[in-house]
Structures are given as C-alpha cells and as structure tokens.
Write a structure and sequence with these properties.
The structure is a homotetramer. The first copy, chain A, is mostly helical. Chain A contains 12 helices and 3 strands; from the N terminus they run H-E-E-E-H-H-H-H-H-H-H-H-H-H-H. The first copy, chain A, starts with a helix and ends in a 34-residue tail after the last helix. At the A-D interface, helix 1, strand 2, helix 2, helix 3 and helix 4 of A face helix 1, strand 2, helix 2, helix 3 and helix 4 of D. Chains A, B, C, D: This is citrate synthase (unknown stereospecificity).
Chain lengths: ~280, ~280, ~280, ~280
C-alpha cells in the first residue's frame, strides 16, 4: 500500500478538523502565520486576543483600547449570578476550571448579552447612516421601531443599581481620546450618545449609558462583530470569576448555600399529605 | 430585640428562595407535600420525575409511558457531539459530574431542541383544532405557514442517518396502545401522523417521524409543556453520557483528541510570516 | 485506489472512537446487543440505566431497587449549591440544558462525592471480610485507620441538618426487604449498620446513616463500583435540578442573585485609595 | 421597628456574601479600594488580572511578564480536547458563553493541571533551599523522591508532540531578561533548569522544559501560588477556545461530530441478541 493511498482517510479526518488559526508540526507552533516564539514578548496579551479572533495583529493603540474594554467589566460583585455561582462552586470540591465553567456558563442572553444587543442596535443605525440617513434621523427611526415592536429596555442604556454607571463615562472619554488621535473613528460613540439624547427627549429624563453600551461602543469602533462582544465579555468577567473563586477557596466553607447556614427557604407548596391509596403510610 | 423583629430580614431572605417543590425541617423532607419516606419504594423513578416537575403523582400507566420516552433516547453513539465530549472530557482529569456537565451543556437548540420544536408545532395544530379546525385542515395550514416562512426541516421528521428511525414507529405503536387503554387521548399521535402524511403528499416521498417527533408525541400526550421536553431529553441522554464517560474512564487514555493521536488537522490559514517591524526575529 | 486501501485511514478513525455500548447502521440502533425497538416498552427506565452502565439487563427486582435509590436523592432544597445554581442560572437567559449543566457541574467531591467515599469505605471492609476477618473486626480495623489518619467525618454517617435523615432508615428497610427475597445479599447493609454501631460506641452517641451512606449500601448491594455512584447521584439530583430550574423559569426574575435585590454584600477589603502616582485621579 | 433591628437579618445575609474584592454603592464601584474609573485606562488588562487576584497593583514590568505568560498558552490546536469541544459545541445551538464553559470545564488535572503540578514541585525545592540546601542538592533530593514514589512524568518536562516546545526556551529567555533588570529573582528559572539538567543526567538524554514548566517558572517568579496557575491557564486558553468557537460558528455545520459525517465508530461489544424471555421480539 503506498503512502499516498494510506493518507486518503487520514486526509479526510484532518480536513474535518481544519482551521485557519493554528498550524503545528513537531517543534513548530504558528498562530495566524506567526511563529509563537516571535509573538511571545512582542505582542501584548490583548494583541494576542485580537490576532486570534481577527487574523491580523492590531496596532499598539488598538490593542490598548481592547485591553481597556476587557479590564473594565471584570466584576460587578457577588449579587451577580455568575459571581455567586463561582463562590458557591468553589466550596463543592471541583477544580478551579470547573468553578469557572459553571460561572461563565450563565453569561447568557440576559446576564451577558446586553453588549451584543447594544452593538447590533448601533450597527443598524450605522447601516442607515451609510445608506444616507443623518445620525439623528437614523437614531430616531431605529428608536421608533424599538418602542413599537421591541421590549422596553433600550440596549446599552440604564442600570438597575447605578444612577450613573461609573464605567461608562470614563470609557466614552477614552474612546473620544483615541478617536482624537485617529485610532478609531468615533462613530459608535456618536451613535451611542445620540441614542442617549434621543431617549432623554422621549422619556423626559436621561437614562445614561451603561457598561454594556460603553464597551459595545469600543468593540464597535474596533470592528468586532456583535456576537464576539459576548465572547469578549466572557473573557473579561472570567477575571472576576477567578478572583472570587480564589478568595472563596481560601476559606473553609463547604457546600456554601445562598443564605446563612441556619436559614432555610420559604415553602409555598401543597401542605403535607399522605401517599395516595395507602392506609398505612409507614408501611 | 423581639423574635418577630429579628425574623424580618431572615424572612426576606427565605422568601427570596421560596419554592413549592420541597419543604424541609430537621428530620423531615417533603416533596410536593409527600413525606420522602412515603415516596421511597412506592413511587417509581419516572413517577418521582413527574411529581417533581408537575406537582402531582402520575398514575402508574402515565409513569410507565414517561419512562418509555426517557429510556428511548439515551444514546445515539459517539458521533453525536454530546457523547464525543463526554468521552474526551473523561480523559482530562475532571470528576464524572463535570464530564456529564460538559456534555449535557451542548444539548442546545440544534442538538437537543428538536423535541421542543416538534411539540410546539404539534401544539399550534392542537390549538387550531380546539378552535374548530379539522385535523387535516389544521395540519395543512400550519405546514403552509412553515414552508413559507420557516426553515426547511419540519420539526420531528426525517433523519440524516436512518431512512427510518427504528425508535419512532415503536414509540408510536406504544402510544397507540396506551391510548387504546384510555391512558392518553392519542391526539398528538394523530397530529404527528397527519403531519407525516401531509408532508409526504407535498414532497412526493415519505419523510418519516424521528425520535424527537415521537418522544414529543408522548410528552404532549402526557401534558408536558414544550420547554420541559428539552429537560426530559437531557435526563434521558445523561444516561448515555454517563455510560460512555464510564467506559472511557476505564481505559488509560489521557487528553483524548478527536482524531487518532498521530494525526493532526489541516491548516488553511495565512502562510508563515515574520513578526512585523522586526529585523531580528530572535530579538 | 482500491476500496480496502481507502478504508485504512477511516478504519483508524473509527477505531479511535470504538465503543462496546452502541452499534448503529442505517435503520438500526442496538444498545449492548439489543435492538432499541426491543428494549423500548420492555425495559424500564432504571433497567435501561443498568444495561447501559453494566452491559447486561438487570432482573426486574434489581431494576426496582436501582430506581428506589435514584428516586430517593432527587432534591434537598435550594440551600444546596447545585439547586441554588440551577435557579439562578434559569434567570440568566440560557437554555435549560445549560442551566442543568451549570448545576450538576458542582456535584464534586464535597457536594456529590460522599456516596462514592462511603461505598469505597464499605468496600475496604468487604475485602477484609473476604480475606477472613469478622464483620465487627473488619469494621473496627477500618475505623481505627480512619480515626488515625483520615478526616473526622466517617463517610455516610451524620447530617448537618437532620438529626435523623428520613431517607436513610427507609432505604435500609427496603434493602433488608429485598435481601430477604434474595435479590441482594444484605452484606453492605450489615457493614453500614456495623459502622454505625461501632462509631456510636466510640463517640458515646449514635451518628446515624445519611442518604449518601444509605444509597451507597444499595449501589454496593447491586454491584456498582464506587465511582459510578457519583454518576448515579448526578442522574438522581438532575431531576431536582430540572424541577427547580423549571419552577424558576416560570417566574419573571432576571439575573437572580443570592440575596434579595435591595441587599448588597459586606465589603471587607482595603479602604478607598487613589490610583498610585497620579495627582489628578480624574485625569 | 427601628432601623438597627431591621438590619439584623439583612446584615447576616450581607456578611454571608462578604468579599474583600469589590465594594459597591449606587454610582460607585471600587476594586480592591480603587475607583473603577481610576483603573480604566491606567491599569493594563494583565494589571487588572493581578490586582483582582492579589489585592495590589503590580509594577508595569510585573504586569508585562504576566501578560507574556498569559499570551503564550492560548492555543494548541483542535487535537486538544478543550479546543475540539469548543468547535463541536459551537455547532449545537448554544450561546458562545456555553461553548466556552463546556471547553474550559475539561481543563482538569490531566489537561490543565501540569503547570500547577510543576509550580508545586518547584516550590518544594525552593522551600528546601530556604532551609539551607544547595540548588543542586534540593533538586536531586526532590527528584529522588519523585522517581521512587510518584509517577514517571516529571512535572513541566517533556512533550508528546514537540521534541522541543518552542514556547519554553523563549519564555525562559524572557524570564532571564526580566531577572537581569531586577523585576524577578530568577530563582524559579534556576530551579527549572536544574531539574532539566538533573533529569538529563539520570535519563542520559535531555527532556526539555515544556509550556507548563515554563509558565510555572514565570508564575512562580511573580509570586502566584500553584492553584492560581490553573486559573491563569484557563484565562489564557479561553482565548483560543473563543477563537476556535468563533471560526467554527462562521461555518454552517450542525452537530459536528469528531469524525467525518459519513464515518461511524467501531462497535466492539456484544453481538446482536434478542430481548430475554420474549418469543416474539416484535411483540
């Protein structure tokens, strides 16, 4: 049997797992065409994130702005389900990888999806502007559609807890500074602020940009597609998840429940009843 | 400080975690109002599943039919992502609970959601019939809508691999037998078979009911809402996941990849290139 | 290129994923050698679990006893991390499969491993008896070793909350009844009760068998190896996890935290401080 | 009821979730005592990781070295179970957060734990040196113990695939450069190289440092405890997991199995057999 013929099935298998991300042979690892040893020590961690997701290296400024967005959303405390889950899981006798997995697993549409929704919303407006609409016109038209057909939280605006989310104005300020230096266009910052202003007119009060809206601005400025913003948020929040898991694991609690140990929960169901059709419940 | 006042914060906490499923005090566990020791040995495992999800005990026949559906979908082999993941995870040094978690986690809309979609589809038709439509009319109208606006796999019909899914006719046969004895109405079996017949007329060839369509018939007959069919499928497939995880863990493989160890993957990306702006790649 | 030669790579790939559990070809699914349509409606759900894990069908009595153990441990309320996680995850916008995955993932050594530890402990004693020791002698010797070198919870004994775990005596009673009918030997029940008695003598007070100790008795009587008891516990607790996830999903909460929404958490860390080396913190 | 009395239960609940990581009140978020808006744009992403895990800000050089280690281990291709799982999960209809969770969940003792083991091994030697042993003496004594009582892979040495892991020498070179500038002591680099040399003498051939051994050197130099190196590896590999999940999700595959779609798996179990005690298998 010749080598060429032997390879046939193997080739099919290897094609089944094809990728444009990583190339390997013994002693060689290349990411997106770069030798790994050329990247190590030259590309910053955010630059590696960018390269892996986008295929090309970012400029140093682009990598910095990405790192700023990643660093801004690492934690929002143990009242967030993801962080609470991390802390409880850390007391159950599983590895720190599994603690982290249980926690990031809940960063779904409701807990982790707001940035993705915000960036999609901005993107709709950007498309309208590209098609000739004015900024205010495009924003107004999109909000009209929103308030007719969609639900009543405008993506990226408002916060249950913070009257002003302290992360958002700082992120916008930095985006503007990067735009002033030509790193990004500032277009998504314009869109977000126009949305904020239009909603304020409609509601009669300002509902300020939140962290999801602000990071969506940055990810949009940097050219990331909406679904990746969820992935980037997972990377970011993983840091807080790890920190809380670690802090918890340094304590001696076992099977930490949500409430103090001597508390229970309120039972609201059917009162006690015998098993049906049994005269002698104790058997 | 009086007892009543002390309780106030605790009560709020305990209400935050209220549930109608389980009641506990020291020495006492009640599920849906039944003492746990009265259930143990009297209610079969499927009956306990039913009680927990529905709040009331099923009849013995209802529990049997539920058990039949649960037993039918336990495994479809390691080409299914869930099973492959279980086997790979079992070689990575995590507990069997985490192996199972990684695997059931992927039983999403595409891998695990077909039963839910099928039962929703049947439910739309059932509602139309309740509103006065004939079986064939309701089926035809729903399929008209489907072929205009939705995607081209009719939920519950057809299988990539099996010309006839051997589980489906047997499950229908048993549903009919239970209907003949008055355990269920047979209504969802009628709907599923009418869909199959109508699609055959439209396509000119029979696209037979699959396991998802057939278990959806049973879950519908038994009165489970569509989203629970996904949960029941997870319970069912967990058995196969556990069996494969266990079989794999009895072998000595470490970090089992998807392809034989000496194979790689095809690289399709950018050819090798130097790190930009560096004359001396070794620094 | 001949067919035989073409198959070579494919064969390697197919052997890489070999299994003794399931055989498939178009239209055919066999589990452990049985046609799936022969199993459906004949083997109960616990019997299918047994077949998948052990390779052979159990007797009807064996399947019943397995079902009893599976049904006994389905829930212990939302103060258990697994159940709390299920309820929180259900409010975060992920599928019910992912809700269940996050929850079972934490059934690790501490939260889910007690049954496995108890059965290993019983197994050590059974081996000593097989080697000629008396029941009491083997138990005493194993406990001597335990109290010298291991930690101070005897596996399978005692409960933080229940003075007597109401599930345990009922499970032992049923095990004895099955033993009286010759379904099992009663040997692990003897061992567990001898441990309980010996520990009572040492401590001067009874520390009664708990659910983990009692289900370990049954799994041991039925011939399951210790690591599978964790897997069986996962199957069992998955029922409660699903029930709580479902109940929670019927409510409108979003991002349910562990404490009532208006509460926070106590902060115990470093007091507020300026970013180092900055004169103007606002930049 | 007075405010003080009302707070009592709430205080208990808030203490139950206490943390030294994050402090919040409406409009204010502080991480480890720093206002979040002071950190954003000033602390790099690796610096935020450090702050969250350690409680204090690193120097710029320390943050750089941490970033180097994080960037080095992002991917090792789809033959690694974690990456394969990410790609398969991405075809199953779950969110990217759940895709990532399924994948990082398997970074257990075998797949993700080598760095932790290596750093523990180095730490044993460091302790011996602190107690007065020479470098070579401490290494030799630890290896003696290893080859007597432990398993035959020395933590941090050797690679199944790479004769020389291209990441390791580059990481050591950079560690040495940082040590030369006084950022770190170089002590763990010494230990790792002494282990490599001693093993080469024992085996008669060099078994070179791998990525786990090299990143463990860096994490040790920077003062991270061994269990955190697993968490840091999870953060790092999450980048590759996200990149592969994203690439896969851009394709149209559904339920991607481990082998090409037309392949199956080899069945090695019991041959076909009838259901026992049934004369008419078809019933």
């Amino acid at each position: 049997m010749s080598g060429a013929e032997k390879k046939s099935g193997r080739e099919l298998g290897e094609e089944w797992w094809q990728t444009a991300i990583i190339e390997m042979s013994p002693g060689i690892i290349r990411l997106r065409g770069y030798e790994i040893q050329d990247l190590i020590g030259r590309a910053s961690f955010p630059a590696v994130v960018w390269l892996m997701l986008r295929g090309e290296l970012p400029s140093e400024d682009q990598a910095s702005l990405l790192g700023i967005a990643l660093g801004a959303a690492v934690d929002h405390g143990p009242q967030a389900p993801s962080i609470a889950i991390a802390r409880m899981a850390a007391t159950c006798g599983v590895g720190i990888n599994s603690v982290m997995a249980s926690a990031i697993n809940v960063l779904g549409d409701v807990h982790g999806g707001a940035g993705e929704q915000a960036l999609s919303f901005y993107g709709d407006i950007a498309v309208a502007i590209d098609g000739g609409a004015t900024l205010d016109g495009a924003v107004s038209a999109r909000l009209d559609r929103f308030f007719v057909g969609e639900k009543d939280y405008v993506p990226g605006l408002g916060h249950r807890f913070h009257p002003i989310d302290p992360r958002a104005p700082r992120l916008l300020e930095l985006t503007r500074a990067f735009a002033a230096r030509g790193v990004v266009s500032g277009r998504f910052a314009d869109i977000a602020e126009a949305i904020e202003a239009d909603v304020a007119r409609r509601k009669g009060r300002k509902i300020p940009l939140n962290i999801d809206g602000a990071t969506a601005v940055i990810y949009g400025e940097l050219g990331f597609p909406p679904p990746l913003t969820r992935g980037l948020f997972v990377l970011s929040r993983s840091v807080g998840i790890l920190a809380h898991a670690w802090e918890q694991s340094q304590q001696s609690e076992r099977n930490k429940g949500p409430l103090p140990r001597e508390w229970l929960w309120a039972y609201t169901g059917t009162p006690p009843r015998p098993f049906p059709g049994e005269d002698d419940a104790g058997e």
